[in-house]
Design brief:
369 residues; mainly alpha; Methyltransferase, Methionine Synthase (B12-binding Domains), Chain A, domain 1; Rossmann fold; Globin-like; 5-stranded parallel β-sheet; 5 strands; elongated; binds cobalamin
Length: 369
């Protein structure tokens, strides 16, 4: 009964809040927020049950030409001001003496919609995380530098416009280039609310539909690495033409991936002057396994070979994390050397290996923290 009343009062408050926004009255909007807090609504609910649905409704009204651009700007400015005012309520009380994890979060390049990322940031702060919120449209290279400087345990990327989603893949490459691909990346924004399966095509750990789910998934991932991520889905069968194109390009793919791997000094140093030979032989092996898996449409054998490789390779100075970054470079090589449709079909298999290898890296990190 109490829950029912609470839901009713939230829907009444939402109507009053939208009304305040339609009148462009910050003062009326403040009264609604005050009323919500007085009636026991917590700050997180004000965010997710009042601000967020109102913003979505304003978007719909704007789309239908019933809200002007100026009205939308005013409403967003009010929401952002109120978020700043509510922010102290998202600080854990009493303050935590040690923060277990650090999050660096912001929007991908050109992405101006920053309210969602800011909400996610505040929810993590309330959960006791150390949070660095970078705001809208962050250039990839400086985002990555910041993540390095703050020793991020988790990176959050927000993309609202679907045409900004490719920046997420660029971001993953940049992390990889800095040997930071061990930092998990979570993503969110409208494209992932509408098509959660999009996440499987990107090199990231998980997406979340809202700020509450994001905290929940992140904590589950840290409690049991791998659990927040959907188990890698077996790829679809590769067409024969793809297999042929892959076989024709195999030499260039191996050369490209080997050359890129040799640029990564810290991963190459343990291999001494045999580095090129060891890495090229590893890629040769990877290529054969991929060819076989595609021909037989079977990923079990890849799984077994990964398990074998992860046991054998450390004896040659190759850690599970090194294997992971090499698989990522291999995916890059496939994209560089094959026409787009063949590359996508082959990379389904490579991404499957990357996802599985990521789980292995997490498990090994967990057992040797
Ligand atoms: C305010 C607004 C703007 C403002 C943003 C200002 C600001 N300071 O943020 C401005 C004016 C800049 C703007 C510009 C544009 N906008 Co606009 N905008 C909106 C609006 C009305 C609200 C956005 C918002 O604040 N949402 C509230 C937040 C809380 O919700 P959220 O972002 O979804 O976040 C939640 C989850 O998605 C998730 N999440 C979000 N990020 C992350 C990150 C991680 C890591 C995780 C785990 C989760 C997560 O958790 C969040 C909190 O629970 C939306 C409507 C809508 N449906 O969202 C349109 C909307 C997104 N905009 C739209 C459009 C078209 C544009 C423009 C192209 C318009 C134009 N012609 O210029 C430009 C593009 C600008 C750009 N390059 O990015 C369309 C997009 C349509 C589409 N299908 O692509 C929308 C949907 C409006 C509509 N209905 O048509 N916009």
């Amino acid at each position: 009964m109490k829950d029912e009343q609470h839901t009713t009062s939230l829907s009444v408050l939402r109507i009053s809040y939208l009304d305040a926004m339609q009148r462009g009255s910050g003062r009326a909007a403040d009264q609604v927020v005050q009323q919500a807090l007085d009636s026991g609504t917590v700050a997180g609910e004000v965010y997710l049950d009042i601000f967020q649905p109102t913003a979505y409704e304003i978007g719909r009204l704007w789309q239908n030409n019933q809200f002007s651009v100026a009205q939308e700007h005013l409403a967003t400015a009010i929401i952002e001001r109120q978020m700043g005012e509510l922010h102290p309520l998202f600080r854990p009380q009493p303050p935590r003496s040690n923060c277990p994890h650090t999050l660096v979060i912001g929007c991908v390049p050109n992405e101006q919609h920053r309210v969602g990322a800011r909400m996610v940031a505040d929810f993590f702060e309330a959960d006791g995380w150390e949070v660095h919120y970078l705001g809208a449209a962050v250039p990839i290279s400086s985002f990555v530098e910041m993540a390095k400087e703050f020793q991020a345990d988790l990176i959050g990327l927000s993309a609202q416009m679907v045409y900004h989603v490719p920046h997420i893949s660029e971001f993953a490459h940049e992390l990889n280039r800095h040997s930071l691909n061990n930092i998990p990346v979570m993503v969110g924004g409208m494209p992932f609310v509408q098509q959660p399966e999009l996440v499987n095509t990107l090199n990231v750990r998980f997406s979340a539909a809202d700020a509450r789910q994001a905290v929940d998934r992140a904590n589950r991932m840290f409690a049991a690495p791998g659990s927040a991520v959907a188990p890698p889905r077996p790829p679809e069968a590769a067409p024969l033409a793809t297999l042929e194109a892959f076989q024709q390009a195999r030499r260039q793919i191996i050369q490209y991936a080997t050359a890129r791997s040799l640029e990564r000094d810290n991963e190459v140093a343990p291999l001494g002057n045999r580095a090129e030979q060891i890495i090229a032989a590893g890629f040769e092996f990877t290529t054969r396994m991929l060819e076989t898996a595609m021909a037989l449409q079977n990923t079990t054998l890849l799984e077994e070979q990964l398990a074998w490789g992860n046991q054998r390779q450390p004896h040659d100075g190759v850690t599970p994390a090194h294997l992971l970054s090499r698989f990522m470079l291999y995916a890059e090589a496939v994209s560089a050397m094959l026409p787009t449709d063949h590359a996508a079909a082959v990379n389904q298999y490579v991404h499957w290996m990357i996802a599985r290898q990521q789980e292995i890296v997490d498990q090994s990190r967990n057992s040797n923290p």
